[in-house]
Amino acid sequence: MGYVKVKKAAGAFDVVCAENVGMIKLNGSGNSATIRITYIGASTGTDLLELTSTNSGSAGGGFTQADVQAVNEAVGLIGGGSGMIDVSLSNTLASSTLG
Question: What is the rounded CA–CA span in Å between residue 8 and residue 54?
């Protein structure tokens, strides 16, 4: 399986599955915008992954459409393969939540 490695603070990271991705989009706007990843064929409660930035809600916080494009490109590069690929976003990741 392929995975995308998303950087968190202090050298930590979260791993996002790059398999069966149906949609990657910007959710919300401005300083509170998140990245929402929807998976195809997943059970309810595990079909949606929300990525929230460390600075969400404050000046310069939130993710941008360029971040969505970076995640989309990383998924495309590793999709169908195995291993992990890094992605650089405008803010570090605070949390990733299944919903």
Answer: 8
Q: What is the pLDDT of residue 57?
A: 75
Kindly report, residue by residue over 33-88, the tens digit of the pLDDT.
999 999 998 677 678 999 999 888 788 789 999 999 999 999 999 977 889 999 99
- Taking phi over 0 as left and psi of -120 to 50 as alpha, with beta for the rest, 28 belongs to left
Closest by Cα among 94, 88, 99 to 52: 94
Region class of 62: left (phi > 0), else alpha (psi between -120 and 50), else beta: left
Per-residue model confidence (pLDDT) at position 45: 66
Which residue ranges make up each domain of the chain? 2-98
Assigned token pair, 6: 């998303």
